[in-house]
Design brief:
Strands 1, 4, 5, 7, 12, 13, 14 and 16 form an eight-stranded antiparallel β-sheet that branches. The N terminus is likely disordered. The chain is built from two helices and 23 strands. The chain is mostly beta strands.
């Protein structure tokens, strides 16, 4: 009898162990699936306060290292535009079919015409590459140039009429999703176009400060590079706060997005904004004479995941004070962002819908 009970007890113990192992296996499977899901949408952020390694990965000079300098935003890499650049033997885009590349930098007012500061390519297949660069113009301002190439398609986005001042800090971004590349400067979309992208995959590597050849040297400062394996909305961009003096320079007098009222609200609220008289816009913001009639203005609503949920305004507007009513009857309780954009200038604020 004791032996029988012993056998039953052993069988019961084995059954319990089997159950525990099964549960553990399931948990490991779920954890692995979760980890894979996180990897697919992984964001890599590099702060260039050191250059010997980024994100735990060793770098190599191409051929010389940039120097490190102190700035109002922290220590940053300084590229001389002659032979400073470095290389990482990794591809932060991975096998993603959508992505965002953000850079917070301060281009100089000197250097070559083509200044390539990000170059990602498949080392075994040069047809697969992604490029970000500035084009320096004779007036010492720059325009943004982005390029994607695959085995079956290629596209360059560049608008020579959208010019930006050198020697000031700017945020630039390239996004890709659904066969569409978009480019942004300081959160404002400049251009978009269709291109068929093929992932660069495991053979990819990235150079910072020049092409991987190397040539097309960048001159200026780079503080941050952020790469996400999905296409971010502008409200999700990481744009560091500028200093007070730079903020005064970067936003024209009279351009302002006011806080909505009431806030919190249910379901309607008023949004007020002020548009700059064209005569007060910085010189060179427009090609030729400043416009004598309205300029295109957009006002859009985003959720906290950066998804656009409403477009309240997309038309030519005259300078001065404006307001409109936002009805959120079809939205759920929560926080939302509203973003006003005029040309290269944009401002975002938050509001709360409470049912």
């Amino acid at each position: 009898m004791c032996r029988t009970r012993h056998i039953d007890s052993t069988s019961s113990l084995l059954a319990r162990k089997s159950s525990v192992l099964l549960i553990a296996s399931l948990l490991l499977f779920i954890a692995g699936a979760t980890l894979n899901a996180q990897t697919d949408t992984m964001t890599t952020t590099w702060i260039l306060d050191r250059i010997d390694s980024l994100g735990g990965r060793a770098t190599s000079a191409l051929p010389d290292w940039p120097s490190l300098v102190e700035t109002p935003h922290g220590r940053s890499a300084s590229f001389d535009g002659v032979n400073d650049a470095f290389l990482l033997q990794c591809n932060p885009l991975g096998s993603a079919n959508s992505f965002t590349i953000e850079v917070f930098f301060r281009p100089d007012t000197a250097g070559g015409n083509e200044q390539r500061f990000i170059h990602i390519r498949n080392s075994a297949n040069d047809n697969r590459r992604v490029l970000l660069e500035t084009r320096l113009l004779p007036d010492r301002r720059w325009v943004f140039d982005t390029f994607i190439r695959s085995d079956i398609s290629s596209l360059t986005l560049i608008d020579s009429t959208r010019r930006f001042s050198g020697a000031t800090w700017h945020h630039v971004a390239l996004t890709f999703a659904n066969d569409t590349m978009r480019q942004y400067v300081d959160g404002a979309e400049l251009l978009a176009g269709r291109v068929l992208y093929q992932p660069i995959d495991i053979n990819g590597r990235i150079s910072i400060g020049a092409r991987q050849d190397p040539r097309s040297w960048f001159r200026g400062l780079i503080r941050m590079i952020r790469i996400s394996r999905r296409a971010l909305a502008p409200a999700e961009f990481y744009i560091p706060t500028t200093s007070v003096d730079e903020e005064r320079q970067s936003k024209p007098q009279g351009f302002k997005l006011h806080q909505n009222f009431p806030n919190p609200f249910n379901p309607t609220t008023n949004i007020f904004y002020t548009l700059t008289p064209f005569s007060l816009l910085p010189q060179g913001e427009w090609v030729g004479e400043p416009p004598r009639s309205g300029v295109r203005v957009t006002l859009k609503i985003y959720d906290l995941l950066g998804r656009e949920v409403a477009t309240l305004l997309d038309r030519a507007e005259e300078p001065g004070e404006h307001s409109l009513v936002f009805n959120a009857a079809n939205l759920s309780t929560g926080a939302y962002c509203y973003r006003l954009q005029m040309g290269q200038y944009a401002e975002t604020k938050k509001m709360m819908l409470v049912r």
